User: Which sequence fits this backbone?
């Protein structure tokens, strides 16, 4: 390989890295702009919501399940007990299954989406979403406080919603 070939290889590698960085930068800018508009990313499989024309709209039957999860937890039931109650009552998951896991219950309880917020690019920041909340911020915060008190693992340090909206 001569000097010209090596130079071309170095330039090609540099351009490929630059293109990749530029793509990453544009993606982050687009995600931040979407975040400011309260746009929801993902496949739309959020318990309590259906995705219609790019927006999340409340699915009343599933929303009742979400409220039940929050209420049961606030009334002292563990995630495992809530799992048993939901399965006994035949309540369905966002995928239509009747088998629940304690982890999926905890995921619902920790998700600020249910009180009308959207998690931002930075995992500890949330912003107001464009969707209707299923539970109030007060209920969400009460559950977040209980989760911390009961020392569940994987609770985000900012699980509690504090906004200046």
Assistant:
């Amino acid at each position: 390989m001569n000097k010209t070939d090596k130079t071309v290889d170095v330039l090609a590698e540099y351009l490929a890295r630059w293109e990749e960085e530029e793509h990453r930068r544009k993606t982050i800018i687009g995600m931040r702009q979407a975040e400011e508009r309260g746009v929801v990313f993902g496949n739309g499989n959020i318990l309590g919501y259906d995705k219609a024309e790019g927006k999340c709209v409340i699915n009343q039957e599933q929303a009742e399940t979400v409220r039940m999860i929050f209420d049961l937890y606030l009334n002292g039931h563990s995630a495992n007990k809530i799992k048993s109650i939901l399965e006994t009552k035949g309540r369905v998951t966002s995928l239509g299954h009747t088998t629940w896991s304690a982890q999926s219950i905890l995921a619902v309880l920790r998700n600020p989406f249910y009180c009308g917020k959207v998690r931002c690019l930075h995992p500890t920041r949330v912003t107001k979403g464009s969707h209707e909340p299923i539970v109030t911020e007060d209920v969400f915060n009460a559950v977040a406080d209980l989760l911390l008190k009961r020392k569940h693992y994987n609770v985000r340090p900012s699980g509690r919603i504090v906004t200046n909206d």
Summary: The mean pLDDT is 83. The longest strand covers residues 49-52. The first helix runs from residue 3 to 36.
